[in-house]
């Protein structure tokens, strides 16, 4: 049973929401790479776009903002600080939805079980920051299980006593959190783990008992190079192909990241929380402009969510054409500044 004080607070909250005015303007869900940044460089139009949305005199955003990216391998707080430093506007960790942010919702299932992470050296600590208690990464596991990845260079790794304890536990789940730094090592170790009972040294079986979650489904991403580079989704394609070839069965997994629904649901929650803070009804968003550069992720995800989402393509990253024939955006612009200007004009907010 709820206490009388809790019920009273809930009634007051409901009364406040029911009397709050509806929000009349647009909300924004920005992709990062290819829209605001290109590698380590800021796309020039990004400054103009964000400055038009941030009220410097009152130090607040003029509209609800979220940054929803298929990037990862860091905490939401660290990503927010990096954006703040590069874009010269304050970005808060509550505004960030990374490709692996939905993994936070898995805490009840795996908090006390062994987790194997794939990605950069920070991924294990990111998983621990989410509350998972027994985490080890593929680089450390390869060092502990000598000769398990014969071509991997892991001599520099210095496992902690806790790493050795986790390595003795059966792996319950694999989190692929960002791009693999060594495809050969990681595919080999995952093939061992996924074909075992969680102990990679034990006899192999073609029956998968270890859970697997991928975060970033993008095949390509833009950086400073003149052509897009392979992204995390390419590693998933390779792992699935090898697993199928070896076992004769399809790999079972769950996919997070755009265009999949969990990341958009989190983004909607972020925007509703900002509306509450701004004093508006949290359920009132006339339009959410999802501005991205990748039709199969940014446009497909926004279109799948339907109203009030509006898919917007910009030509500063992966996409360079008029519009995509398969994943067709509502509108296409040369850059993010033009996209934001269009959204503000549609809601009589441009100044």
UniProtKB/TrEMBL annotation:
What keywords appear on the UniProt entry?
Transferase
Query: Lineage, please?
Result: Eukaryota, Rhodophyta, Florideophyceae, Rhodymeniophycidae, Gracilariales
Q: Which GO terms describe its cellular component?
A: mitochondrion
Claim: Transferase is one of the keywords in the record: yes
Q: Which Pfam families match?
A: Hydrolase_6 (PF13344), Hydrolase_like (PF13242)
Q: Which SUPFAM superfamilies match?
A: HAD-like (SSF56784)
Q: What is this protein called?
A: Putative CDP-alcohol phosphatidyltransferase class-I family protein
Q: Which NCBIfam families match?
A: CECR5, HAD-SF-IIA
Q: Which InterPro entries match?
A: CDP-alcohol_PTase-I, HAD-like_sf, HAD-SF_hydro_IIA, HAD-SF_hydro_IIA_CECR5, HAD_sf
Keyword field contains RNA-binding: no
Gene Ontology BP terms:
glycerophospholipid biosynthetic process
**Molecular function in Gene Ontology:** transferase activity
Q: Which organism is it from?
A: Gracilariopsis chorda
């Amino acid at each position: 049973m709820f206490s009388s004080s809790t019920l009273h607070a809930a009634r007051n909250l409901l009364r406040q929401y029911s009397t709050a005015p509806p929000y009349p303007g647009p909300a924004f869900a920005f992709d990062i790479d290819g829209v605001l940044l290109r590698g380590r460089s800021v796309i020039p139009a990004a400054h103009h776009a964000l400055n038009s949305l941030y009220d410097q005199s009152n130090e607040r955003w003029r509209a609800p903002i979220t940054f929803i990216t298929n990037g990862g391998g860091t905490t939401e707080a660290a990503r927010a600080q990096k954006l703040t430093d590069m874009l010269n506007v304050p970005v808060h960790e509550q505004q960030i939805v990374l490709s692996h942010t939905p993994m936070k919702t898995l805490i009840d299932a795996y908090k006390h079980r062994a987790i194997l992470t794939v990605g950069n050296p920070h991924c294990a600590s990111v998983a621990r920051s989410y509350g998972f208690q027994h985490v080890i990464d593929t680089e450390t596991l390869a060092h502990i299980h000598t000769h398990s990845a014969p071509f991997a260079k892991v001599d520099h790794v210095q496992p902690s006593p806790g790493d050795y304890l986790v390595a003795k536990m059966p792996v319950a789940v694999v989190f692929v959190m960002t791009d693999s730094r060594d495809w050969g090592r990681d595919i080999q170790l995952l093939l061992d783990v996924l074909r075992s009972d969680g102990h990679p040294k034990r006899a192999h079986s073609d029956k998968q008992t270890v859970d697997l979650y991928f975060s970033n489904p993008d095949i390509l991403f833009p950086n400073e190079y003149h052509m897009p580079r392979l992204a995390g989704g390419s590693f998933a394609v390779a792992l699935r192909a090898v697993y199928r070839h070896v076992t004769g069965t399809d790999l079972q997994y769950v996919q997070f990241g755009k265009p999949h629904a969990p990341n958009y649901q989190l983004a909607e929650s972020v925007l509703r929380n900002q509306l509450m803070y701004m004093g508006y009804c949290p359920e009132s968003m006339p339009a959410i402009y999802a501005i991205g550069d990748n039709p199969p992720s940014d446009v497909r995800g926004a279109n799948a969510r339907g109203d009030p989402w509006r898919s917007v393509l910009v030509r500063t990253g992966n996409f360079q054409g008029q519009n995509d024939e398969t994943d067709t955006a509502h509108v296409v612009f040369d850059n993010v500044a033009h996209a934001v200007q269009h959204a503000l004009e549609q809601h009589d907010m441009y100044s």
